[in-house]
Design brief:
The structure is a homodimer.
Chain A (H helix, E strand, L loop, with lengths): L11 E5 H18 L2 E2 L9 H7 L7 E3 L2 H9 L4 E4 L8 H9 L3 E6 L2 H14 L3 E7 L14 H8 L4 E8 L10 H24 L6 E4 L2 H4 L10 E2 L9 H6 L9 E11 L4 E4 L3 H4 L16 E4 L4 E10 L4 E5 L15 E5 L3 H6 L3 E5 L5 E6 L5
Parallel strand pairs in A: 1-16, 2-9, 3-4, 4-5, 5-6, 6-7, 7-8, 8-9
Antiparallel strand pairs in A: 1-10, 10-11, 10-15, 11-14, 12-13, 12-15, 13-14, 16-17
């Protein structure tokens, strides 16, 4: 018996390889046309089979969001990584273990306090750890503002064998806009901010080999990255309804979907009930604040074709409620019990994280492979 | 070196055993005082070490939300289970495999269509599978309304060797209220609804051994369950901020928390940044629609004591942003880099699901055990 979308257990995470490959090619071409290195963020997939298709070379460069990701990808031979979340001293032994194994893992920080802790650790261990200073280009999270005098103080606090190698920023605020013009402002702000910070450090005599920017929306909008050495982006590998809402992909580009089975109906309400609840879709409702709220997801047939005006209007832990947006009642006969559907998610990162593996399909219902994901920290 | 909350890797899921034990005892006493059997829902923990403390006997009874749960708990010897999500025909082979191994796994359904599919399967396999009809007592999800004529049609469509053994309802609508009076209405509605459905079936000549109700809020509110045989509830084992908002527990009863580490600050904004983002807390923002929005969670010191007016006001994948509700700026000196904090979650079920294990503590910082969780379907 062929293993296909009609007979595997549900809910199950489906990955359309053709769409993924196109998304990967698009970002690779974009980085090439901008003349910068692509350092893909591997946090979205947490899967070597996906990651290796994104990487420029098998050794990297790559970005990770957890030390678990760094450790897993290092096992597959990835050497050049940035752990792009501010470091805490308790995490340094795991960083050091990787560095001692020959992994070129770089860390980031944004304070004199953290710089001193890293310096102390490196001196105690007689170990060089490479550091980037995190810059805040849009006020959405961590980092020092590009014009902060504190940048130089942090650089000074980083003493050998700790070594400053660059600056990094992430225009996370780009997730909040949805026009090309607004994205251009974010993209330019990201580039200008990181270049000002880099200039400040170089003027003070520091050598920087890495000037790193990136978010999927700004990466796909960038027109000129003069002064920047590399581009980071993650969710582009699968895309999702949220990125479609931002305007940097089409709904037809989304490579990830949740395969579900119809388990019942509420006739009077016109609902179809499936086994795809929020445990399988995640609780992410990122599109709720966009122009078009996509509920817990849009509904496709088993082949991945969008169906009319259906959406997942509600979800419990293991139940998804599908209804029609225009208020019409869905005819239960069109969606018999046992029928298979595919749901496009709000956000690929949290939806993916709910699943042990990806079932890979390629222009047919047949499952050509099952790629394992890891999770945890 | 003692393994404790100051030196394990973060983010990490912490389980306060003393609080969990008190929550378990409270629900057990409640069921006993109502004169009904407690059939705990094991979907919250997905962990045998937790589940075995909730069960009346090592064989059950228990409720599960996935066949994976049924299979995992069956390996530990649990026999009497209800899979409380409407069945689809593709799932019957896994049900049958358990039944053939001697597991008394019951399924639920709410349509003639599903009843026929189950009957056909049981006849083809010459296998008895026990079935409960799902009743909808409050319009929130699945099930037939208590007075629906369709209930008898479903019972008729269940032919031997499929066997009707009972009725089941879940007052999920109780999650939307927050006063004792409103909870009492939900609790009585749940009981009255299921009793009307049971009477209808018994009047038609069907024998029912199970009349099952339950949700954590109604279970803790019930005053009289005459006519009901058993009570189901799940999240009570840990409780969470959402249940505190409903009013059925105190914040101090919450047994589950996320241990995080301070990784930075935004001085001008008065933010503390931690490594506990939405990947570790989940995207659940259930309290957003309650009287008190608790953000992504409330902040405790490492000992579990609530801190002033702090909350997790924002979260990215691996970043948590802690701020003060009253607008004051948090002094970074009070929360140095490397400091450990504990976050009380909105909803124990999705937060738990992000983690491979529970680190168990008991009135100290020392970790007395690590209990594995399973995930997937």
């Amino acid at each position: 018996m062929t293993v296909d979308l009609l007979n595997i257990d549900t809910p199950a995470l489906i990955l359309d390889e053709t769409k993924m490959d196109a998304n990967i090619a698009r970002m690779r071409d974009k980085a090439r046309s901008l003349g910068v290195t692509l350092r893909p963020h591997l946090k979205t997939s947490k899967c070597w089979e996906v990651a290796k298709r994104q990487l420029w070379t098998p050794q990297g460069p790559a970005t990770v969001s957890t030390l678990k990701e760094a450790e897993e990808f290092a096992l597959h031979g990835v050497k050049d990584m940035i752990y792009a979340v501010g470091i805490a001293p308790q995490k340094l032994p795991r960083v050091a273990a990787l560095v001692r194994r020959g992994v070129d893992l770089k860390i980031i920080l944004d304070s004199v306090e953290a710089a001193r802790l890293v310096t102390q650790y490196c001196q105690k261990e007689s170990l060089e750890i490479k550091v980037l200073i995190e810059i805040d280009c849009d006020g959405h999270r961590s980092g020092l503002t590009p014009d902060s005098a504190e940048i130089i103080n942090v650089a000074r606090a980083l003493e050998a064998p700790a070594r400053l190698v660059g600056v990094l920023t992430h225009a996370g605020g780009s997730y909040d806009v949805d026009t090309h013009e607004a994205l251009l402002v974010r993209s330019r702000g990201e580039r200008d901010g990181i270049c000002r910070a880099a200039k400040k450090l170089r003027d003070a005599g520091y050598e920087l080999s890495i000037v790193s920017v990136g978010s999927t929306p700004t990466a796909l909008t960038d027109e000129d990255l003069t002064g920047v050495t590399e581009l980071r982006a993650g969710v582009y590998v699968f895309f999702d309804l949220f990125q479609a809402g931002v305007g940097v992909c089409q709904i037809s580009d989304i490579a990830l979907s949740l395969l579900v089975t119809v388990i019942g109906h509420q006739m009077e309400k016109g609902w179809v009930i499936t086994d795809g609840g929020w445990m399988a879709l995640s609780r992410d409702r990122g599109t709720a604040n966009q122009k078009i709220d996509q509920g817990y997801g849009l509904v496709c047939d088993v082949h991945g074709h969008l169906i009319d005006d259906l959406w997942v209007s509600g979800a419990n832990q293991e139940h998804g409620i599908i209804s029609a947006r225009n208020g019409r009642k869905i005819n239960p006969k069109d969606f018999p019990i046992g029928m298979r559907l595919r749901i496009l998610p709000n956000h690929a990162c949290p939806t993916g994280a709910q699943h042990p593996c990806y079932y890979v399909v390629n222009n047919s219902l047949e499952i050509k492979d099952c790629w394992k994901r890891f999770y945890g920290w």
